[in-house]
Each structure stands twice: as C-alpha cells, then as structure tokens.
C-alpha cells in the first residue's frame, strides 16, 4: 500500500466547490505568476515542504475528472495497488494525438512551431544533450498536462531540471530565455509562452532518459470522444514500443507508413460505423472510458 498526498490546484477562475473533495487543495487563486501557470504553485510546494520518501505526491488541474473520468478515490485506488517498486504513476488522458508522433517533442513542434529546437538547445545548455530526432516516447512514459503522481525521488529529478528552465527563462539577458518567454500558438491564438510546453514534457523526457525510474500508466487510451482515432493511435503506439524494446528498424518503417496513412484510415473508421466489425471495435473502445479503473 502506498501513501498519497494528491492536490488539485485551485486557480483564479475555478470555484473551490468545483474541485473533487477527495483531493487536497493547493491554492493558487491569487495567480501571482500567471506566466508560469501550474508550475508556480507546484514549485512553491516542492521547495517549501518536507517530503516523505515513501509517499506519492501529485498536483492536478481542476479538469482531472473531466479528462480522465476518474474520481479521487479511483485514482488513489490505482496508485495504492501499483507495483511496490513504482516511482511514478501516470494518468495522462487519451494520448492519441501524440501517439502519431515519434516523440512528444515532435508532437509539440507540430502545435507550437520551434519547440523541438528550443528543447534541444535547453538540454544542451544544462549539460544533458538529447538528439530529439532519435528519441522515441510511447504510452509507457508519456505525460500530458502534469497528470502524474510520483515519489520524492522523481520530484527531485524533475525539479532539478525545471528549476534550470525557470532560471534561464527568468533571465532577461539570456537569448534562450527570450525564446522560452515568447508566446506560441495554443488553441487558435498566440498567448502562452513556449516555456510552458517544454515544461510539460520534462517528466516524459526524464522517464525516457533514466531507465531506473519506474512508471506505471493507467489506461492512456481511455477516451470519451473521437473514438475513431484510437485504432491507428494504438497501432502506432504498439509499433513504437516494439521498436523501443527490440530496436528493429522494420518497426519504425511500418510506424512511419501507418502514420502517413492515419488521416485516410481515421476517416474510414469515422464513416464506417455502420459496418459491424468497426462498430463492435469502437463500442469496445468506448467501454474502457466507462469502466472502473483496472
């Protein structure tokens, strides 16, 4: 059994009664550093509070239930029944969009142009150069929206990297800092600084970079909508896992083929609901969102 301290972040636009009462509250309602979004209250907590080495800590957005269909009790049940040697528990909501990309930085670059280049220069700056064209990430290590719960061992590694990102971005004389502060595209506008989207990928990068960190992922393909996208996403993810574990080039070659064909096949699955095999598959995929956590 694992002890847990899981917080939901109370931001300036969410009423307190909208939070799950099963979580503790991390108050960020004053929004003192809006340009750092959720990192600011997470940082203050991790720098200011003593942590118990055997306890899992987490800092979740108010949208956790909406995006995962999990209550606090269900999330805690999954954590406490995870393997004893687990360092990080992942609750990323459906990752079908990033599954089509070789890694989360390539995915990020498609939505926030320039992110991959900035990330490579950041990793080189901190003495941990990472050739992102060859990095492969998959459902075993992909973190979205900071939806992860971890022991202090992981949080220390994470904070050690994110604090260097924070220092560079806060330096008004640093050219890389200026790029990190620059606004990039997000949901149809250009309003969020690049540093936030790099920050959100640090946890994934750590899990891939350090094989001694053990993660346990709750179903990353449970989705309430756009189920027609899942068959190809699951196929692409399986090919990436096969490549990451066995290193055979054929897996990457077929992944690239499947990715190129994804728009075509997604359209076929979207329009093919009247076909019994397609309908049965999509109904089964819907079941994973509705069922209790396993």
Brief digest:
With 294 residues, this protein is an alpha/beta fold.
Description of the molecule:
- The protein is of the alpha/beta class and about 290 residues long.
- Helix content is about 50%, strand content about 10%.
- The chain has 13 helices and 8 strands.
- The strands form 2 sheets. It has a 6-stranded mixed sheet.
- The mean pLDDT is about 95.
- Order of strands across the biggest sheet? 2-1-3-5-4-8
Give a count of the beta strands, DSSP E runs of length 2 or more. Answer: 8
Low-confidence stretches: none
* Percent helix: 40-55%
User: Terminal Cα separation, in Å?
Assistant: 16 Å
Global geometry? globular
Strand content: 5-15%
* Mean of pLDDT: 95
Number of helices: 13
User: Rg, please?
Assistant: 19 Å
The chain-level structural class is: alpha/beta
**What kind of sheet is the major sheet?**
6 strands, mixed
Write down the secondary-structure element order. EEHEHHEHHHEHHEEHHEHHH
Layout of helices and strands:
Blueprint: E1 3-10, E2 24-27, H1 39-48, E3 55-60, H2 64-68, H3 72-80, E4 88-90, H4 96-99, H5 104-111, H6 115-125, E5 148-150, H7 152-170, H8 175-181, E6 183-186, E7 189-193, H9 194-199, H10 202-209, E8 215-217, H11 230-246, H12 249-271, H13 276-290
Parallel strand pairs: 1-2, 1-3, 4-8
Antiparallel strand pairs: 3-5, 4-5, 6-7
